[in-house]
Amino acid sequence: MLAIRRGFEMADHPRSDSEEKEEFARMMEESLAPKFHKEGETVEGTIVALGAEVAFVDIGGKGEATIDIEELVDPDSDVQVKVGDTVKAVVVSTVGGLRLSHKLARGALTRQRLNDAFRAGLPVEGRVEKAIKGGYEVRVGGQRAFCPISQIDARFTADPSVHVGQAYTFRIIECKEDGKELVVSRRVFLQEEENERAEAIRRTVVPGAVLPGRVVSVMAYGAFVDLGGGVQGLLHVSEMGWSRVGNPLDVVRPGDTITVKVLRVGDDDGKISLGLKQLQADPWSTVAEKYRVGQALKGKVTRVADFGAFVELEPGIEALAHVSAFAPTGKRDGWKAAAPPGAAVAVEILNIDLERKRIGVAVLEAGSVRAESATGGAAGSEAPQPQARVEIVAGARLTGKVERVETYGVFVFLAPGRTGLIHISETGVDRESDVRKAFPLGTDVEVIVLDVDPAGRRIQLSRKAVLEAGEKREVREYAEQQDQAQSESFGSLADKLRAAMKPSKK
Which of 27, 209, 267, 295 qualifies as a cystine partner to 262, CB 3.0-4.6 A? Predict the structure, then answer.
């Protein structure tokens, strides 16, 4: 504004060329003069050079400041900025040049600097001192701050003690009374990092890409796989293996780390379809070499339909024994007795269609010469069956053992790897009572399942529901007893009346 005003003054009062040059030089010098900054001030500048220990930042005019390089590196000591990047920082010192802080570290932080960090949205480092009601007490420099339990992590924290003693990076989300009252959040940083990872991951998720992932949940129709940064794709049951998969849990389990291939990415909805079998050799690639029409061999009946039976010749290779290939029995569906599911049978190949990946077979009569001459061996010995798992679904009534008691509820062991939580409000115990005495460790407790998340990891239980159900049953039984007693009493009164009305015999 000063330069513009002086420009108008020069226009109103013409000067000589020498005077104009002198004035212009003075104006340029003033515009380039270093600006004065004070500690705690938030500035924005451009990285102009990266040294071994500091980064140099141009903050306008002749102003140049430095940031310690250690503030700009990730946990792997890789510098996260480059020349030309814009950074926002706080002036922490003006002695001997401007020194900036991109991330206010632990130390003797003044309330003013914490206020500056709050306004600028800069990260601060703090240590979790202890768990308190509703969250944690965090020490940020010399100041005490509060972190709500919902803001300590991006996911549910079952055991609050796991964070105590940990040093984390936080963001100040509330600052009152000039820094005396601070509320901080770690979750916002985790979400920002996850969003950045998600953006980077999405750039790599293209059809044909082979990526590592972690199984998040398993459903009847397939499994959801986290590719990183919360980006999930669906591994459909039909893409899990070349052989037919009846239960996805036979192939993958929640928490498994697997490698998958990206099959499709939706243009409109961005849905990601994944494949597992595509990373394995296609058994059909060798069918022409291994099988021929007329060949007799052994197989295993995998399933039976109205039109025929499917026979597995080897994992990933299924043949169809059509109903028309069975000898007539004179009974409706009588052919099914020759090929029950799971039976080992001898078959003869009738046709092979490589293009459509289909093989037609006929089941040979057991004990026949042709059946006895079948070669190729059985479809394979059966894999050991997994142990039966406790059926944990909403509404189920189960008995478990008390595993541990916390201030917010009781953890109950239901089955190996399956632990549920009875929230304090669902224990059926008065607030004044001692929950630990009501639920001694190792004792059996009957519960009702309220809810189970898709991954089967978070199981909500209720003891109160069991008690209420017992009370209702007792009330119902008592009411039935009263009805019966009244009925009997009424019957006795009626008998007495009838007896009184009978004429007396003389």
Answer: 209
Does the domain formed by 387-489 have CATH 3.40.50.720? Answer: no
Domain 283-372: which CATH number of 1.10.443.10, 1.10.12.10, 3.30.470.30, 2.40.50.140: 2.40.50.140
**Token pair recorded at residue 354:** 């490589």
Task: Select 42-101's CATH number: 1.10.760.10, 2.30.250.10, 3.30.450.40, 2.40.50.140.
Answer: 2.40.50.140
Of 251-255, 321-325, 384-388, 438-442, the range with the highest mean pLDDT is 251-255
Using the predicted structure, report yes or no on whether residue 449 has a pLDDT greater than 90.
Answer: yes
The secondary structure of residue 249, as a DSSP letter, is G
Class of domain 111-191: mainly beta
Maximum distance among all Cα pairs of the chain, rounded to whole angstroms: 159
Fold of 205-279: OB fold (Dihydrolipoamide Acetyltransferase, E2P) (2.40.50)
Tell me the pLDDT tens digit for each residue of 334-391.
888 888 998 999 888 889 999 888 999 988 877 766 677 675 444 433 333 333 345 7
Q: Where are the beta strands (DSSP E) in 30-189?
A: 42-50, 54-58, 64-68, 86-93, 98-101, 123-132, 135-140, 143-148, 167-176, 181-185
Q: Where are the domains of the chain?
A: 2-31, 42-101, 111-191, 205-279, 283-372, 387-489
Say which amino acid occupies 108.
A
Long-range own/partner contacts, residues 272-275 (CB < 8 A, 24 or more apart): 272/205, 272/227, 272/231, 272/232, 272/233, 272/234, 273/233, 273/234, 273/236, 273/239, 274/213, 274/225, 274/233, 274/234, 274/235, 274/236, 274/239, 275/235, 275/239
Q: What is the pLDDT of residues 303-312, one digit of tens each?
A: 999 899 999 9
In terms of DSSP H, where are the helices of 38-186? 111-120
Half-sphere exposure of 17 toward its Cβ, with a 13 Å CA cutoff? 0
Residue 119 CB: number of other CB atoms within 10 A?
Answer: 13
pLDDT of 447 reads 94
Decide if 111-191 and 205-279 have a common fold: yes
Question: How many other CB atoms are there within 10 angstroms of residue 235's CB atom?
Answer: 27
What's the confidence (pLDDT) of residue 384?
32
Pairing of strands 272-275, 296-305: unpaired
User: Model confidence over 368-382: pLDDT tens digits?
Assistant: 666 776 754 444 333
The 3-state secondary structure of 314-337, one letter per residue: ECCEEEEEEHHHCCCCCCCCHHHH
The Cβ-side half-sphere exposure at 203, using a 13 Å CA radius, reads 5
First to last CA, the chain: 136
Residue 496 CA to residue 185 CA, distance in Å, equals 82
Closest listed residue to residue 115, CA positions, set 90, 146, 147: 90
